[in-house]
Amino acid sequence: MNNEILDYCLRIGDTSLILSHRIGEYCSKAPVLEEDLAITNVGLDLLGQAENFLNYAAEIKGNTTADELTFKRKEKDFRCLHLVQIPNIDFAFILTRQFLIDCYHHSLFNQLVNSTDQRITGISKKAIKEINYHIQRSADWMVRLGLGTEYSNQRLQNAVNELWMYTDELFIDNDTDIQIDLLKIGPLSSSLKKPWEKLVMSTLSSADIKIPDANLYSLKYGKDGFHTEYLGYILAEMQHLPLLYPNAIW
Amino acid sequence: MSDEDQGVLWEVFIQVKAGRPYKHVGSLHAYDKEMAMKAARDLYTRRNEGNGIWIVKAEDIISSDVNDGEAFFDPSNDKIYRHPTFYKIPEGVKHI
After folding, report:
1. Is A179 exposed, middle or buried (0-12, 13-18, 19+ CB in 10 A)?
2. What is the pLDDT of residues A126-165, one digit of tens each?
3. Which ipTM did the prediction report?
4. Can you give the pLDDT at residue B3?
5. At A36, is the secondary structure helix, strand, or coil?
6. Which of A34, A41, A140 minimises the CB distance to B28?
7. In B, which residues are within 8 Å of A32 by CB distance?
């Protein structure tokens, strides 16, 4: 049964890890200094959450560490969702990506705090406090840009339209979801759709943003190890140093 | 976005714990109160600096003029009798 928990921890950990890496790439490039520090803080929160889940994954797997899982794993062994792999196209994309994931994390971690797995319960109770803040911040920005000017609304609407298809994956149940649900460790991904939609819809309507049509986007997803074209480049950069100088320390 | 378009200046005060005074820690730029509060939280309280935040628009603070320094403050320099240092404090009196 531990294989399911391992796969599940990798999914949650990798998703936060890759998003934190994307946010790290954006460091020093935000429109204003205050925003730069704020978004980077969110990235650090996510990195901390990733570390907690990958530490647990490493213990379950045995003979490895969170660092090794991060810096020495192959692309097909990553379990991160496609949405977090999307590049930092512009502020609207960065914000929308963050908002959609924040709503997902909010729905997910509100269930995980009641997990039968004590370790996951502990990690999640700490994470939910951070997530409650992340979602306030990103929802606030969505409304600001949505109601800002005609142009800012248009840019935001464009980002929502482009990113919407990747939300498909958040609510797909694979074998791991079914096992995790049976063991009462976590919810079925499909069960998160309603609470997620409630959060997303209320903010988008306040922001005067239209909900795009939902289309089935793919049958191959990050949670099963099939990734977007972007992940390889992220890993190439992220893993470059440890691969070149194994066991380098500072 | 131009450099000038970063919102107005706000001054931030942090309270270390309940009952203690709010102390000035720095400033930030924001467009309104809500944004100023979020920015203050991210800029000044991420290392457990405190449990309370006050924010004031910098333009709403009335400050003394540096050029008034002589007239305002110098006259108190040589009037040490204004300090209560010539009294004997009775034993047992605390907090003085």
Report:
1. middle
2. 999 999 999 999 999 999 999 999 999 999 999 999 999 9
3. 0.79
4. 53
5. helix
6. A34
7. 1, 6-7, 29
Closest chain A CA to residue B28: A34
Q: Which chain A residue has its CA at the smallest distance from B30's CA?
A: A34
Cα separation, A97 vs A88, in Å, equals 9
Nearest chain B residue to A42 by CA: give it.
Answer: B42
CA distance A152 to B4: 19
Chain B environment of A136 (Cβ under 8 Å): 38
Strand order in the sheet with B52-57: B22-30, B8-15, B52-57
Q: Which residues in chain A have Cβ-Cβ distances shorter than 8 Å to B37? A: none
Q: How far is A113 from chain B (nearest CA, A)?
A: 24
Half-sphere exposure of B80 (CA within 13 A, CB side): 3
Q: Name the residue with tokens 């209320």.
A: A202
Question: Residue A215 has which token pair?
Answer: 């289309």
- CB–CB of A21/A34 below 8 Å? no
Residue A215 exposed, middle or buried by CB count within 10 Å (0-12, 13-18, 19+):
exposed
Structure tokens at A43: 């990235």
pLDDT tens digits for range A195-213:
999 999 999 999 999 999 8
Q: How many contacts does A have with B, using Cβ atoms within 8 A? A: 29
Contacts of B41 in chain A (CB under 8 A): 133
The length of chain B is 96
Question: What is the band of B1 on the pLDDT scale with cuts at 50, 70, 90?
Answer: very low
